[in-house]
Design goal:
By secondary structure, the protein is of the alpha+beta class. The protein has 9 helices and 7 strands, in the order E-H-E-E-H-E-H-E-E-E-H-H-H-H-H-H. Helix 1 packs antiparallel against helix 7, helix 3 packs parallel to helix 5 and helix 5 crosses helix 7. The longest helix has 40 residues. About 2% of the residues have low confidence.
Length: 293
């Protein structure tokens, strides 16, 4: 779990920052008229903030992923293993029809890998030292194929679009509900949106509604994992992909990836409730591959 949680948390942070900026600069006032809320203007403002916050998060995703795990980008292979990584990723990228991604290795004992980036031709593929040491090359090739498929499918861009739409509704609903609650607390006064109580209510509502929206993002994340597994099977082999997942299923060591970015990785099962999981259980993924899904 390395890609999605980072994106979601970054998005929430950006959205809260934009909310504060809008409030301090008075731009929130454009969403109000004498009679109260100007719903069309509010929806436009929500769309600009929502889509903007999502795509800012997308543009920051590669840099944040590198910084979070301390990934070292390999400009030139320094040993046979790195040379093999370059050749494998280059071959798979060409087969998938995308540009050559940056390749990085980060020091961590668990078996994990991730891919991220704002476009198919400017992506990053990173693997842990634990993955390279614990899997054979056929298994690593399947994992790399899984990550390359995420890039080729444009999963991060699609995620940004979904998150942007959800952001828009979160911002819109938070302000509509906030105005209603603020009026009730203030004796049903005209207008709205000007007091501290309203601002506090909107912040709380954005956090709550943002969390609920993240459940939809996690559902999409689980669904795309099956597609990425199928892509890994095509770029390597079905048996190699199944073998890699079986190896991951037997990896009971501690996941040392920061919690904020665990949804980026290939394993990412965790012990959280299913609705909050960015990855489906590995047993389901293996079953889907064996059924030829």
């Amino acid at each position: 779990m390395l890609r999605i949680v980072l994106f979601v948390l970054t998005n929430l942070a950006v959205m809260l920052l934009l909310t504060i900026v809008v409030k301090l600069t008075g731009l929130d006032a454009y969403a109000y008229s004498r009679g109260g809320l100007n719903l069309p203007a509010l929806l436009v403002m929500a769309a600009v903030m929502g889509m903007g916050g999502s795509f800012i998060s997308l543009l920051m995703s590669k840099w944040m992923a590198k910084m979070s795990v301390g990934a070292q980008v390999i400009d030139q292979p320094r040993n046979p293993t790195e040379a093999w990584l370059f050749d494998t990723v280059r071959r798979q990228a060409e087969k998938a029809g995308i540009g050559m991604p940056e390749i990085a290795v980060y020091d961590a004992p668990e078996m994990n890998a991730f891919a991220t980036g704002a476009s198919k031709n400017h992506a990053l593929v990173a693997v842990s030292t634990g993955l390279l040491q614990s899997m054979d090359r056929d298994q690593v090739e399947a994992v790399l194929g899984h990550e390359i498929t995420h890039v080729a499918n444009g999963d991060m861009v699609t995620m940004a679009l979904i998150q942007g739409v959800l952001n828009t509704f979160v911002i819109f609903l938070a302000r509509v509900i906030g105005t209603v609650v603020d009026r009730m607390l203030s004796g049903n006064r005209d207008g709205g949106g000007g007091g501290f109580a309203y601002f506090a209510i909107v912040i709380v509502l954005q956090i709550v509604l943002g969390f609920l929206a993240s459940l939809i993002v996690m559902w999409f994340s689980r669904w795309r994992e099956f597609r990425a597994d199928a892509g890994g099977a095509r770029l390597a082999s079905r048996q190699s992909m199944i073998s890699a997942l079986e190896r991951l299923a037997g990896n009971h060591g501690e996941n040392t990836l920061p919690k904020a970015i665990q949804a980026f990785g290939i394993s990412g099962e965790g012990g959280v409730a299913r609705l909050l999981m960015s990855h489906p259980p590995i047993a389901e993924r293996i079953a889907a591959l064996r059924q030829g899904a």
